[in-house]
Design goal:
By secondary structure, the chain is of the alpha+beta class. It is 29% helix and 26% strand.
Length: 152
Amino acid sequence: MGSLVIYVPGDPRGKGRPRFVSTPRGGRTYTDAQTASYENLVKLCAKSAGAVVTDEPLCVDIIAYFTPAPSWSKKRTAAALANETVPGRFDVDNIAKAALDGLNGVAFSDDRQVADLRVRKRFATEARLEITISPAMAINERTRGGDQNRAA
C-alpha cells in the first residue's frame, strides 16, 4: 500500500460528546447528528479517493484548515493565514477522533491500527480536512525513528 490522500471539503469538525438517552432498560449512548453526518462525509471522501480496507499498521497525518472569520481585520486575517495564530475551534484530539471514526471500515479495519498520528490546525483561504494515510513502516524509514537509533 502506498500513501493515500483524502480531501474532505468544508469546515472541519471535532467529535461531539456522546449523548445519552434513558430507556426502560437503563439507557444507551449515541453520536449526535452533526458528528454522524461529518463522519459519513469523511467515509464518502475516503471511498472517492480510492480507500481500501487494510489490516496493516498505519501512519495518519491530519491537517484541519479553517477560514478566518469574515469580520476579522485585514491585519488579523493576514496573521492567521501566515500561521501566526492557531484556530481555536475544536481540540486536535476531537478532530482526530471524528476523522478516524469516519475512516473505520473504509481505510482500515479499526483505528487501533494507527501506530503514528499527527494532527495540525491551520488557517487557509479554503476550509477542508486533509488526511494522509501511509504504511507505518514507510514513515519510520523516512524519519529514521524508533528504538534502533537510541543509544544504549
